[in-house]
Amino acid sequence: MNIHRFHVHPHSSAHVYLRLQPGQSWEDISPKLLEDLGQLTKANSIKGCKEKSVEVSYTPWSNLLKKSGMAAGEVSFSNNAMVKKLQIKKNNKILNRLEKTKVEKFPDLEKEKMQAEKEKRKIAREAMVVKKQEELRLEQEKKEQEALKSYDLIFDESNMRSNYDNDGDLEDDFM
């Protein structure tokens, strides 16, 4: 899944997650959406919401690293180069706009994950069928090309004669 985590960097805070559409890259996230996500993240941070400006970091979910010795809620990153940061200043206009359009959902994430994996497997199977059909078509084409180059079409037993089928008459008249 293409999920990204937003977090107020130095503080303990609620996280905001963004699920991108299939095929969409995290480099393609619009600056306006980044600002909205940053404002939500800042507003949901206990300490961050009191500050004028905070640093919000975001990274793909797959880049998060959790080790057994870490405290609850503490995470690290597999690759620090994949962590991007935003400087967010409080903007009440954005927060009010977001509050008016707020829709709370409690999705069954496990079910959604299973559905997404099922869809991926279906797409992979369809791709495999297409690939197999293409291979069969190419193999058939290759056989047809070999048949055109072969002498098998010229060889016809009905036009052949054998000495065993001859009468002895031909040999008698020889001399």
TrEMBL record:
Belongs to the CCDC25 family. PANTHER family: COILED-COIL DOMAIN-CONTAINING PROTEIN 25, DUF814-RELATED. Residues 5-78 form the NFACT RNA-binding domain. It comes from the Eukaryota. InterPro entries: Jlp2/Ccd25, NFACT_RNA-bd. Residues 106-151 form a coiled coil. Keywords: Coiled coil. This is NFACT RNA-binding domain-containing protein. It comes from Rhizophagus clarus. It holds the Pfam family NFACT-R_1.
